[in-house]
Automatic annotation (TrEMBL):
It holds the Pfam family ECF_trnsprt. It comes from Streptococcus pacificus. It comes from the Bacteria. Keywords: Membrane, Transmembrane, Transmembrane helix. NCBIfam families: ECF_S_folT_fam. The chain crosses the membrane at residues 6-26, 38-69, 75-95, 107-130, 136-158. This is Folate family ECF transporter S component. InterPro entries: ECF_S_folate_fam (IPR030949), ECF_trnsprt_substrate-spec (IPR024529).
Length: 173
């Protein structure tokens, strides 16, 4: 929580939340309930640079802010919970740790299974009164196809951030 008193951390968190909102507008629809999204990568960057607590806040702000700026459906707090948990997962696996492909893969697999495939499917089933099992199988299949793509994207982003040494910038007083 001491990080929330650091102006650099707050500034970067705000910028990442805004970027996550913008990235949330870019999606590749596959069907009514299946689509490729990339906003989670921005939340992953927040998790790696700012830690789980601040990344959770970035996820919350990006979900709520995205809804108010350009709603794509009814507001449902379950997706806000998913966005916050996304920050928690990535922060847990990536914060204050040197770049490691193994860690990136573990973080992405946990996010994909827990959030993308399971929780978000549950929220869609509740919101649109869809059969959970059939929806889960379809989304699990899509998530499995997307997983290597998201791992490569996230690894490239985090490797670039590691080379820029943004961690050192955030720790200056």
């Amino acid at each position: 929580m001491l990080q929330l008193k650091n102006v650099r951390v707050l500034t970067l968190a705000t910028l990442l939340a805004a970027l996550a909102i913008v990235m949330g507008f870019f999606k590749l629809p596959i069907s009514q309930i299946l689509e490729l999204r990339f906003a989670s990568h921005v939340i992953a960057i927040a998790g790696s640079l700012l830690g789980p607590v601040v990344a959770m806040m970035v996820g919350l702000i990006s979900d709520i802010g995205g809804f108010f700026i350009k709603p794509t459906g009814p507001f449902f707090p379950g997706f806000t919970i998913s966005a916050a948990l996304t920050g928690l997962i990535y922060g847990f696996f990536l914060y204050r740790k040197p770049f490691s492909l193994k860690r990136v893969i573990m973080a992405q697999v946990v996010y994909t299974l827990a959030i993308s495939a399971l929780l978000n499917t549950m929220w869609l089933a509740i919101l649109y009164k869809l059969p959970f099992y059939e929806t889960f199988i379809a989304r699990l299949f899509t998530s499995a196809i997307q997983l290597p793509i998201h791992i490569v994207i996230l690894a490239l982003l985090l490797k670039g951030i590691d080379r820029l040494q943004l961690f050192k910038y955030l720790e200056k007083k």
